[in-house]
Design goal:
By secondary structure, this protein is mainly α. Helix content is about 55%, strand content about 10%. Helix 1 packs across helix 2 and helix 2 runs antiparallel to helix 3. The N terminus is likely disordered.
Length: about 130
């Protein structure tokens, strides 16, 4: 009996993000035409940029030398506006919402009992 080795290729961050964009597009159109996937990728890119801004603001607000600066306050306001705008996009197009679970937003649905279920996973480059 021969032992056959099966190499399982680890997916790249780009591939994982693409899969999540396809998953997002399927919330709007189950057939997932290429145009819907491209739009979902664009929205997800904006989401990842918001996550990065959230991370940056976390570091700024926890730095004693930068926490009370005008630029830190402006950055936090920018994050809030971005969150609100992007949340409307997710709600209107996909029936999903953004929710802060920790210091970064997540994409999912609010349950009747007030809890949150993540529906689209986040993948970050290290």
């Amino acid at each position: 009996m021969k032992i056959v080795e099966v190499l399982i290729m680890k997916k790249t961050i780009k591939q994982l993000r693409y899969e999540q964009a396809v998953k997002l597009a399927s919330y709007r159109d189950p057939d997932c035409p290429e145009l819907a996937i491209l739009e979902a990728q664009s929205i997800m890119t904006s989401f990842y940029r918001l996550c990065k801004l959230s991370e940056r603001n976390l570091y700024l607000s926890n730095d004693a030398n930068k926490a009370n600066l005008k630029s830190t306050t402006e950055s936090e306001e920018r994050e809030q506006k971005w969150f609100e705008r992007l949340n409307k996009v997710f709600q209107n197009k996909y029936g999903l919402c953004l929710c802060y679970c920790g210091y970064m937003p997540s994409i999912g649905i609010r349950n009747e009992n007030g809890s949150f279920t993540e529906k689209i996973e986040r993948y970050f480059y290290e």
